[in-house]
Specification:
This protein has about 800 residues and is mainly alpha-helical. It is built from 30 helices and eleven strands. The strands form four sheets. Strands 8-7-9-11-10 form a five-stranded mixed beta sheet, sandwiched between helices. A two-stranded antiparallel ribbon has the order 1-6. It has a two-stranded antiparallel ribbon with strand order 2-3. The protein is globular and about 95 Å long. Residues about 1-25 and about 335-345 have low confidence and may be disordered.
């Protein structure tokens, strides 16, 4: 790996000459500047092309671009530059600046919505821009000097990774689901209406409330939806367009960039950035199963969709978490000073110190992360605790830097737990191996102690193999450093291990998000180790191309084999393990365990052949390790391609029917109501295509009305209410009755047995303005036409306005 662009000369003036060129050399011509920015322009062009191909209007793309620059990037970059000590790379300033902008945006949202100033939201960045334009001491942050050059190869590698993420989301989501339903058989991923409803609440409520039950508090990580609300308020973009088209690919691209700059800053290695970005996005779940639908997710949410289009809170939280890890790692990663403050100088790799302003960045990133995704701060705290323990033992003094950082992170966690979540656990509880013991639970007595122990060990091995393939990249660090790791490496290791450990210790499907939260830590550490191994191998340019070609061939072969023969392979290994005629609880793990055995055998044979060949071709000596490591990481690549194939061939189990007639009525209500108005409805079930009032609904997850009207509903679907989720141990109590049966009965009577007194009481006591009737759920009483005014009717969905 070439790291020459991060090396520096001995004197500081040579490092940071006072010139106008971004890299400190002679002033660049316009043509050279254009070439330097060409990779970024190309990545943006791919994003625009994907959006246009998925029927995104040009004006919405333009508005979102304006919002991203004006409402996030510009204020955030200026503030970040004022907090970091000296410039490193332009990409670092922009990536960290964008994440800093997300933090500032939250503060702006709280003030604007709290004071009812949404109409001037577009102008909030002036609060930052004007001081930096008028105060002489701040003006220098508009044109900082002394940037290090970013090599064209790395620039294009990052642009290619961004393009890969965009194309993946285009195939898996954008091309599959329309922004709004086109007919009554249209589908949408099931949780997206719920997320849109929370974003709608955030446009006018601070804090947001639970929209499906008017007035119910929302003890949930809702910062994502404040971000969506600001996107709409600042950029004037429709919320469904934000959630269904613009937000996911844009924030995914930001995550790729921020993980690249963090990898380079922490390791000081030129190619650690592109490698970390690729490991994070593409090397995820090692699977031998196809299709990999919800019912076959063996260990919770599959990590291959790290920036999942099915979880907008995960999408939003990822860049915040990576930036937090980068700032914490930079502060503790100076090996010469395990407990003290940073010196105002470059480290061994020529990376300039962040300075004490990084503590402010940590506080901002931690507060934003705390209620962006509840799983992020615990993982970060665990990594910091491990690093602090090692520093205490090896340095024999208290690492005060770690203590200060721990206080900041713990304070942010306490804020979220007490203020945002109101100490609500969502039903998660400590239960060792509760999420995996199903795989060894069938008749353990019949197997005997030794056999049962073998099944338990195999289950845990399958869990590690499935989710932690990328961590193989970190093995060179342990081999060559003999556990003499730097503090930042201990921090990353602790974060990488804490997530899977939490999944094994805390019962509930949602605990799989702890595993996903650890993925950036694992990718950063693995990229560091992989680059060190590559440097030791000292491959020639030709050898690098051959290695890259081998990766493509192996990944393509594995993808084709799993796609074509996954069922045959599952049957073969089941027969070999004696679990075919008499199915065993661990049968779902056999394909991945069998694949691991085959790969290990092939690796052993390959190592012997390589060793023998090395006796005749000396150039092979010392390079077999990097080949084996690359092959190991490659086995985690097929999941991305298989996701794309599956999205073309199968309907995802988590997608629901969302009729156009329902959405059209909801949007009519949005356009003819005030944010304070409340709606009543008879729609409570998730899909009403075959549901009547005489049936008992088994899934009270109706969220379409609150989502597309952006208004609170008196009683809609209540399965996701925090109090209901808490009763289920983290699951969804979809069939339980509404907690206030008296109110629920009044709601139903207003539609099926209305009286003037009842309707008047709903209007006065609950501010109910409209009754929205889904006739598939039940036809309304004819009396409604005389007691109210019918204002909208498309045949299936009708809207009545109370006087």
């Amino acid at each position: 790996m070439d790291s020459t662009d991060t090396t520096v000369t001995a004197s500081r003036p040579a490092r940071f000459p006072d010139r106008s060129s971004p890299d400190g050399s002679a002033p660049a011509s316009l043509g050279r500047t254009a070439v330097r920015f060409l990779p970024g322009v190309a990545a943006y062009a791919v994003l625009v092309a994907a959006l246009l191909a998925s029927d995104t209007p040009v004006n919405d793309i333009a508005r979102y671009t304006f919002y991203a620059f004006w409402g996030v990037l510009l204020p955030g970059t200026l503030v970040f530059r004022s907090l970091r000590r000296r410039p490193y790379t332009l990409l670092e300033d922009l990536a960290f600046g964008a994440v800093t902008g997300l933090v500032l945006e939250l503060l702006a949202w709280a003030v604007l919505v709290g004071l009812g100033l949404q109409s001037v939201a577009t102008f909030w960045p002036l609060v930052v821009v004007l001081p930096f334009a008028l105060v002489p001491g701040l003006r220098r942050h508009w044109r900082p000097r002394g940037y290090r050059a970013f090599s064209p190869g790395r620039s294009w590698a990052l642009a290619g990774t961004v393009a890969l993420t965009v194309l993946y989301y285009y195939e898996a989501n954008l091309a599959r689901f329309s922004v709004l339903p086109t007919d009554d058989s249209s589908r949408i991923y099931g949780d997206l209406p719920y997320m849109l409803s929370l974003a709608g609440s955030a446009t006018h409520d601070m804090p947001p409330t639970f929209p499906q039950a008017a007035g119910e508090p929302l003890h949930y990580h809702w910062f994502t939806f404040a971000h969506m609300a600001m996107t709409s308020l600042v950029g004037h973009v429709d919320l469904p367009m934000v959630g269904m088209r613009l937000m996911v690919p844009a924030l995914s691209a930001l995550t790729v960039l921020i993980i690249a700059v963090v990898a380079q800053r922490l390791s000081g290695k030129a190619w650690a950035g592109p490698v970390a970005a690729l490991l994070f996005f593409a090397v995820g779940e090692f699977t031998a199963t196809y299709p990999n639908n919800v019912s076959s997710w063996t260990f919770g949410f599959p990590p291959i969709r790290l920036m999942s289009w099915g979880s907008l809170s995960l999408t939003y939280s990822q860049p915040l978490l990576v930036a937090l890890a980068g700032a914490v790692g930079a502060l503790i990663g100076r090996k010469a000073l395990p407990g003290g403050p940073e010196k105002d100088e470059d480290d061994e790799q020529g990376v300039p110190a962040f300075g004490r302003g990084a503590f402010v960045l940590v506080a901002g990133f931690a507060l934003a992360s705390s209620a962006a995704k509840a799983s992020t701060l615990p993982v970060t705290l665990a990594g910091l605790a491990l690093a602090g323990l090692v520093m205490l033992v090896t340095g024999r003094r208290i690492p005060w830097t770690v203590v200060g950082l721990g206080a900041i992170l713990a304070g942010a966690q306490l804020f979220a737990t007490a203020v945002i979540f109101d100490f609500e656990s969502y039903g998660l509880e400590v239960a060792a191996f509760g999420n995996v013991q199903q795989y060894w639970a069938d008749t353990p007595q019949a197997r005997g102690t030794a056999a049962q122990a073998a099944v338990v060990v195999a289950t845990l091995a399958a869990f590690v193999i499935t989710h932690q393939v990328r961590l193989a990249g970190a093995l060179p660090l342990f081999r060559h450093r003999r556990l003499n790791l730097e503090p930042a490496q201990w921090f990353l290791l602790g974060g990488a291990v804490a997530g899977p450990a939490a999944y094994l210790a805390v019962n509930g499907f949602n605990s799989s998000y702890f595993t996903i939260a650890s993925a950036p830590f694992g990718a950063l550490l693995a990229a560091w180790g992989y680059c060190e191994a590559a440097e030791r191998a000292a491959l020639s340019v030709r050898a690098r191309f051959l290695l890259a070609g081998g990766v493509l061939v192996l990944a393509a072969g594995l993808t084709w084999g799993i796609y074509r023969h996954a069922r045959d392979w599952a049957e073969l290994v089941a027969k070999a393990a004696g679990a075919y005629d008499v199915p065993k609880s661990y049968a779902a793990l056999l394909p991945v365990l069998g694949g691991t055995v085959v790969f290990a055998a092939a690796a052993a044979v390959g190592a012997l052949v390589w060793w023998g060949a090395g006796r005749f071709w000396p150039r092979l000596r010392g390079r077999g390790g990097i080949v084996l490591l690359t092959a190991t990481l490659t086995v985690g690549l097929p999941g991305t391609a298989l996701d794309v194939l599956q999205s073309r061939e199968y309907v995802w189990e988590g997608s629901w029917i969302l009729p156009q007639s329902q959405v059209s009525a909801a949007r009519w209500v949005r356009n003819h109501s005030d944010p304070a108005d409340v709606i009543a409805t008879n729609s409570h079930c998730w899909e009403t295509e075959n549901y009547t009032t005489t049936d008992r609904c088994g899934n009270y997850r109706s969220q379409w009305l609150s989502a597309y009207s952006e208004r609170s509903v008196l009683v809609e679907g209540w399965a996701y209410a925090p109090r209901m989720v808490a009763q289920s141990g983290g699951g969804v109590v979809s069939g339980q009755p509404f907690w206030d049966q008296e109110l629920f009965q009044r709601n139903e009577n207003a539609i099926y047995q209305p009286t003037a007194e009842l309707l008047d009481s709903l209007r006065r006591e609950y501010r109910v303005r409209y009754l929205v009737v889904d006739r598939k759920a039940g036809a309304e009483s004819p009396l409604l036409g005389t007691l109210t005014t019918k204002v909208y009717d498309n045949g299936r969905t009708v809207v009545y306005e109370l006087a």
